[in-house]
Design a protein that fits this description.
With 226 residues, the chain is of the alpha/beta class. It contains seven helices and five strands, in the order αββαβααββααα. It has a single domain, classed as Ribonuclease H-like superfamily/Ribonuclease H (Nucleotidyltransferase, domain 5, 2-Layer Sandwich). Helix 2 packs across helix 5.
Length: 226
């Protein structure tokens, strides 16, 4: 495939992923937030979520489900999204809270925090001339956020179908990966810099040799006996 053909395919994919938001704009919704999380499956570290509101003219090809992208490409797109979005919010919930309330509720809490932060960011970036902008529709990847008072839709595999959710998946993934890279220096021996807390061979080897460290999720390791 030539470079031109690759770009053409990316632009076609961009148009397809923009369609859900375009349909909502036609119905009168103005500020549509895509929300996604990263880190539900790892044995260690926090869960992170992001909420992103993209402008209608966002035309950057290559934004997709973060799991489909290389680390280098995610980092590149992270910078573009942070610069060009109308709003970005991030929510972090630590391992202790995950152990206390379970991972699903922790992920929803992180999403709710991200949405609150994105709402504040929207006012900072887009509030002018007496306007008080507010997120008026939410698109999420497979889960719902109860009691938010805003219309919402949970879309299965939304991070591969909706541009704003894909953008949120990139922000959440890069944010969490950076946190885990910092933890790798604080707690060496588990390979956090590479596995980001997931249960790889290197991670389990580290657990057998050193036991758990302060950021391990105890409820995820109940059946681990070394």
């Amino acid at each position: 495939m030539t470079k031109e053909e690759r770009l053409q395919r990316q632009m076609q994919r961009l148009a397809e992923m923009q369609q859900p938001e375009r349909d909502l704009h036609k119905r009168g919704y103005r500020y549509i937030a895509g929300i996604d999380e990263a880190g539900r499956g790892p044995l260690a570290g926090p869960v992170a979520a992001a909420a992103v509101v993209l402008p209608e003219d966002f035309d950057v090809p290559g934004v997709d489900d973060s799991k489909k992208l290389s680390e280098k490409r995610r980092e590149e797109l992270y910078g573009v999204i942070m610069e060009r979005a109308q709003a970005v919010g991030v929510g972090i919930v630590d391992h202790e809270t995950i152990d206390r309330i379970n991972i699903l509720q922790a992920a929803k809490l992180a999403m709710s925090r991200a949405l609150d932060e994105a709402g504040e960011d929207l006012k900072r970036r887009c509030g002018s001339g007496g306007e008080d902008p507010a997120i008026d529709y939410i698109l999420l990847d497979a889960v719902e956020l109860p009691d938010r008072g805003v219309p919402q839709e949970a879309i299965i595999k939304g991070d591969a179908k909706v541009l704003a959710i894909a953008a949120a998946s990139i922000i959440a993934k890069v944010t969490r990966d950076r946190i885990m890279a910092a933890y790798a220096e604080e707690y060496p021996g588990y390979g956090f810099e590479k596995n980001k807390g997931y249960g790889t061979k290197a991670h389990y080897d580290g657990l057998r040799q050193q036991g758990t460290c302060p950021i391990h999720r105890k409820t995820f390791l109940k059946n681990f006996h070394g």
